[in-house]
Amino acid sequence: MNNDQKQAAADRLAKAREERYKKNPPKYSQYSKEVVSLPDDHDFSMKNVRAWIKEAKAHKLAEHRSHLEA
How many separate domains does the chain show? Predict the structure, then answer.
């Protein structure tokens, strides 16, 4: 696959995902309704908490690797 074909495939996939999301949005039933309803700019929104978790996992991995190297 050349770069143009890869880009076209990525665009088609993004469009398909967007259409699927419109037809069947995630329910997030495992989370509290109050948390799901918070706007993205709120400190404790799902978006921010997920970013914190991702950052903490990356930090843990980096610390673990530095400990093994020492």
Answer: 1
Chain-centre distance for alpha carbon 57: 14
- For the question of whether the overall pTM of this predicted structure is more than 0.70, the answer is no
Degrees to nearest 5, angle at CA 61 with 58 and 67: 140
Domain range for 39:
3-69
pLDDT digits (tens, 9 = 90+) for 8-61: 999 999 999 999 999 998 888 888 889 889 999 999 999 999 999 999 999 999
How many beta carbons lie within 10 A of that of residue 6, not counting itself? Answer: 10
Burial 22-57 (b: 16+ CB within 10 A, else e): eeeeeeeeeeeeeeeebeeeeeebbeeeeeeeeeee
